[in-house]
Structures are given as structure tokens and as C-alpha cells.
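Page 42, continued from yesterday. The earlier attempt failed because a stray header line got pasted into the input along with the sequence. Redoing it now with the clean sequence only.
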Amino acid sequence: MSKKLLLICFSALFLLSIAMHFNVFKTDLIGKHLWRQSQTQLNIQQFTRYDYNILNPRHNCFNNNGSNILRMEFPIMQWLIASVNKIFGESILNTRICMFLFGFLGVIGMYLLILELFFNKVVALITAVAFNFSPVFYYYTMNPLPDVFALSMGIFALAYFIKYKNSLEGKYMVISAIFMSVSILAKLPYILFGALPATYFIQTLIKRKEGYQRKTKQIFISYSLALLGPILWYGWVMGEWGTTTIVGGIIKTPLPAERYWYILKHHLEVMWPRLLMGYPSLIIFFVGIFYILKNKKYLTSNFWLFGVMGLGLLGYFFFEISMIDIVHDYYMMPFFLIFFVIIAYGITQILDKNILYQSFLSFAIIAMPIHAYFTSTKLWSVQQSFYDPTLLNDRETLRNIVPNDAKCIMINDYSGYIFPYLIDKLGYVFDHDHLPKEWVDDMIRNYDVKYMYSTTRVVDSQEDFQIFYDSLIYEKGAVKVFKLKVNQ
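This time it went through. C-alpha cells are written below.
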């Protein structure tokens, strides 16, 4: 395959992806996992509007002792998108475009990785196409989610590591280590990708041949420096997370045995085959598994590199199974590496067979974007947002009905992010129909709160609350907006 033809193919893939996502680019946040999307977009807005300090990722809620700083993953992706906003002006379009480009970088990275593993441009290109049209990847590549950025950086890290392994040129090790550091900073679970270079490091120690001592030093020094940034960041912030997050895993959030079996069954029947790989790629995956066993590829060094990483990913899955459950599909994106390397091997075997096998492969390639489109497009909807439809559909009115700089009470919001994002306001967020009148009085007197958005009659219709209301300025569906009396 010539460079010109390769460029044409990638350009066509890029344009096809744009065309398939065209209606989403200017669409405000909506759909599956609106919670995590809102949290990320609030970080971006805060960097853009208020505090550009990358060490201080903020959101719109001041419930935490008056602070709206929330340090989770290192917000490199959010900060970069905010930098684009600084140049071109704030827009959801900027976020969508940046996420699409970050995702497509991952597609290019997948091509480079498979090329270094199989030395076949056609196999690498087809695998990149299959990866691009994974239903999960197809959906999240348009949505503000640091996992997409971390995945793309991690794929590049492994692509350059395999390139180093093939060439033994130290510069590729350095590039790989830089990408790995950024990937882990952007999302901690991607430290699991480090299992691959760690396994190779152990392999080189065991061999003890001439020249291998230099290789082990290169690997050790490069990745030790790469881990320095993540160690400093996560060592600083993890203490604030608590053990009910990914830190505690299954230990702190146990489930009944039948629930574990239900989750595992869902992943085996739905998550892995339909959502992560997609049915057209699934058949190729099984071909890859069959020929790995038949050709005894499990005896090769590369198999063990990815095999150990795969065992690490399974350990991560079972440790975090109570957090992942059946809904957090983006937690499963690290598995893409294992799945699509196996799919790539399946493609190599199919291409070596007769025209019947190759015709099937052609059909599968055509089916990939169709399957992704019909599986994922419906996820950008009010129904898949699982949130109050009035807040979703009438967000522009709700944003404009109150001054932009006014602090507000928001109730109910189980996430702490969706409500403040949809109405684009700063303030205090509450849930479970719980808001003592003393708190309202305190927020009005001492924290400059002037409005209340409410979706609960249990709270806002209490007789004791009437003294706080100046007027009802909006009512639709379950949503009411009250102007509060500054001096009751």
C-alpha cells in the first residue's frame, strides 16, 4: 500500500466519521453518562472563564466547605480544550471538535501499533477502521471524557514502545514514556498499559545476553521518569477521594453474589461483543483466538507482553466490578488494546485465505460503521440522559431567566454536576429532598444566594419556606425557579 493510497484511505475514514457525527457537533451535552460529561465540561468552563491554573480544576458547586475545587485525574485534556476556548471563544463546538480529534489520534495510534506488530499496512488499516467503529468508541469520541484522551495517549505509548522493541532506538523509548506519562495523568487506570513495558523489562533481565543490560537501563530510566508526574499528582490528590471511589473497589463496595454473576453475564453477552468490539469485529476476534491457539502464538514473546497486560486488565475489572457494573462502559476502554490486537491477528489469517474469506472480511468492514451508527446514535437523546426532561429541553430559558453571576440553590441533583451545567449557574446542590430551612437562611444571609431551582415539591412547598420567596419566576414540568428575598 503506497503512502498516497494510505493517506486517501485515512482521509476517507476521517470524512466518513465527521459525516456520521455531523449532527452531534453543535449539540449541547445530552445522552448516556451525562453526569461524567457535565463534570468534565464544567472543568473546561471553569478553566476558560475563571481560573486557568491547571492545578485547580473546578466545578460549579461550593458545597465542599465553600470550595469548588475538585482534583481527580490531572486535567490536561480539560485544560487543553479551555486553551482552545481562550483563542476561539467558548463553545460546545470546540469541545466536540477537540474530542473528535483526540479520538481520531487514537485511531492513528492503533494503526501504528498494529503496523509495528504485524508489519502489514493493510492489516493495520483495517484494524484502525474496526477500532474507529467500535460502538463505545464511536459514542465517546464526541463527548467530553478524559478516558478518550488517556486511551489515545496510551495507544501511542505502546505503539512507540513496540517500535523501540523492533528497532532498539532509544528515542522511541523516550517518546513512548512521554505518552505513557500523559496517559496515566489523564486517567489513572491506564497505568495498566505499563504492564507491557514492565513485562519486556523482566524478559530482558532474564535473557542476560550482551547488549540487554543497556536496554534494561533505558527502559528503567525512561519509565521511572515517566511515572514521576503521575506519582506526584495522585499522591497529592488521592487522599481526598475516599474509599467509595475506584480506590476502594470491591473491598469497600461489595455486592451480593447474584449481582456479580449478573454483571459478568452482561459483559460477556453485551458489553464485550456488542458494545466494545461490535458484532462485525466479533467474528474476526474469534478467528484470531482460533489461530492464536492453532499456530501456538502463545509461545511468542509478544503474546506474553499483551497476555500479562490482559491479566492486569482482568484484575482491574474484577476489583472494580462493583463500580463498573453494567453501566460504566467507558471504564472498559483499556480492554480495546487486547481485543483489537487479537482482531488484527484474525485479519492477517483471513487475508491469507481464499476469496470466500476475503469477501466475508469486505462485508464485515462495510457493516462496521452501520452497526456503530445504529447502536450508538440513539444514545444522544433525552431518554438516555435519565434526567429531568424540562431541564434538558428548556435549558436555554433556564439559563437566561436568572443573571449569569447569580448564585443559586439547586435541588434535586444526585450527581452534583448535571443541574449546574444545564442551567449554567454557580451555587449549592442538594439531593434526596433534603434541604433544611436553616441552610437556606444561612445561604441567603452569608453566601449571597439569590435564586432557587427546584424539582421537588417535598422541599419547595413547605410552609416554612414561603418566607424565603420573593416570587416564582418559572414553572414548567417538575421545575420551579424562585427569586429569593435578600432581606427576609
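Notes: The chain has a mean pLDDT of 94.
Reminder to self: strip header lines before submitting.
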